[in-house]
Amino acid sequence: QVQLVESGGGLVQPGGSLRLSCTISVSIWRYAAVGWYRQAPGKQREMVATVYPTGPTNYADGVKDRFTASADSDMNTVYLQMSNLKSEDTAVYFCYAREFGPDGSTDWGQGTQVTVSS
Question: Other CB atoms closer than 10 Å to residue 28's CB: what's the count?
């Protein structure tokens, strides 16, 4: 069974930074895309960043100038560097990995809480 294990969440003041990590138990090359979603209280889960091994990284409009997503294929780890954090970034952040093909399944991490508050 594939496991995705996130770490790096926590409490940070507005304007601060955090780096999330997600270690995947299989080769990252197994996947067509890896990245991050988040879910704030009372809201739907939304895409934050998608990393394509052979293409550009996509970001949600509200984070593209503040967040940087990357993947280390040697370590099978996905990162999300978050800077200039705002209160509206408060959410549970989920790592995901989507397999190739129209019927490819998606594996998810358990989520890590990020709280931005003074």
Answer: 19
Q: What is the per-residue DSSP string for the chain?
A: ---EEEE--EEE-TT--EEEEEEESS-GGGEEEEEEEEE-TTS--EEEEEE-TTSPPEE-TTTTTTEEEEEETTTTEEEEEE-S--GGG-EEEEEEEEESSTT--EEE---EEEEE--
Q: Determine the residue type at 27.
A: S
4 near 97, Cβ under 8 Å? yes
Tally the residues of the chain.
118
> Over the stretch 65-104, which tens digit does the pLDDT of each residue have?
999 999 998 889 999 999 999 999 999 999 999 999 888 8
Check if the beta carbon of residue 49 is closer than 8 Å to that of residue 58. Answer: yes
Q: How many CB atoms are located within 10 Å of the residue 63 CB?
A: 22
